[in-house]
Design a protein that fits this description.
By secondary structure, the protein is mainly alpha-helical. The protein is built from 5 helices and no strands. It starts with a helix and ends with a helix.
Length: 112
């Protein structure tokens, strides 16, 4: 349910760690298990969960940090900053201890 809420608010993207580390881990584990089951490999995903994930189209999400192209990449990073701001008190000062890549990107934008 929380993953669906994230998708309604931010679009067809994977839950980034910056948004919610626990939810990010859950989705990542589901994705790994889903792919194993889809390829006929042994996994812990039940048939019910596999069918439900397929029906909800949750496994077709895109990663915000792995899209290509400079405009797309800039937009993706801006969305991550937006997500950070929404979940961590309204500012864009992403600390390096939270996410080094996002922190460096924010600093580069300030320098522009």
């Amino acid at each position: 349910e929380l993953i669906l809420e994230f998708r309604r608010n931010f679009g067809p993207y994977c839950v980034p760690k910056a948004y919610d580390g626990r939810l990010h881990s859950i989705e990542r584990n589901w994705r790994l298990s889903y792919n194993k089951k889809q390829n006929g490999k042994r996994n812990e995903l039940s048939d019910y969960r596999f069918t439900r994930l397929s029906a909800l189209n949750l496994m077709n999400a895109k990663s915000l940090s792995q899209v290509g192209g400079s405009d797309v990449s800039w937009t993706s990073m801006a969305k991550l900053v937006h997500i950070y701001r929404e979940t961590h008190g309204g500012d864009c000062a992403v600390p390096a201890s939270f996410d080094q890549k996002l922190h460096d990107w924010v600093l580069a934008q300030v320098e522009l």
